[in-house]
Specification:
Elements: E1 22-33, H1 36-44, H2 52-65, H3 67-70, E2 81-89, E3 93-104, H4 109-127, E4 135-145, E5 152-153
Antiparallel strand pairs: 1-3, 1-4, 2-3, 4-5
Helix pairs in contact: 2-4
Family: Belongs to the MoaC family.
Pfam families: MoaC (PF01967)
EC number: 4.6.1.17
Length: 158
């Protein structure tokens, strides 16, 4: 039985020793809503701090690799693939999609969610001087494949 509680009811890291190694992949999303002029500045490459999307992409990748240091009870994982894609949606939203992959004994959902979240926070940090009304929205798991629990797609019946 997989649980974060030991026999005395104390929190501990799940023991995955006996789980099979399988290919696992997760896709997560976050969105940053901002003023249209802020997004125009980012897309045009006119931000005084540099390429906002490039910095956010690197921050997301670094965060995925360090998820076990940020989220209690997460396993340290040897990720074999991490991608963070950013794009403007409409005139006031940046969509961030983070994908993490590995062959291992536990899933990568937390790594993908962490990558998307930290990329969004990086955009906020870089742009807060020009737009303090930004919001980070819709951080969610979009898809998960592999492992015992099978394939998950957000919004599909289970």
């Amino acid at each position: 039985m997989l649980t974060h509680l030991d026999s005395q009811g104390r929190a501990n890291m799940v023991d995955v020793t006996d789980k099979a190694v399988t290919s696992r992949e997760a896709l997560a999303e976050a969105r940053v809503r901002m003023r249209p002029q802020t997004l125009q500045m980012i897309v045009a490459g006119g931000h005084p701090k540099g390429d906002v999307f490039a910095v956010a992409r690197i921050a997301g990748i670094q965060a995925a690799k360090r998820t076990h240091e940020l989220i209690p009870l997460c396993h340290p994982l040897l990720l074999t693939g991490i991608s963070v894609e950013l794009q403007a949606l409409g005139e006031d939203v940046v969509q961030i999609r983070a994908r993490c992959k590995l062959a291992g004994q536990t899933g990568v959902e937390m790594e993908a969610l962490t990558a998307a979240s930290v990329a969004a926070l990086t955009i906020y940090d870089m742009c807060k001087a020009v737009d303090r009304d930004m919001t980070i929205e819709a951080v969610r798991l979009l898809e998960k494949q592999g492992g015992k629990s099978g394939h998950f797609i957000a919004g599909e019946p289970r």
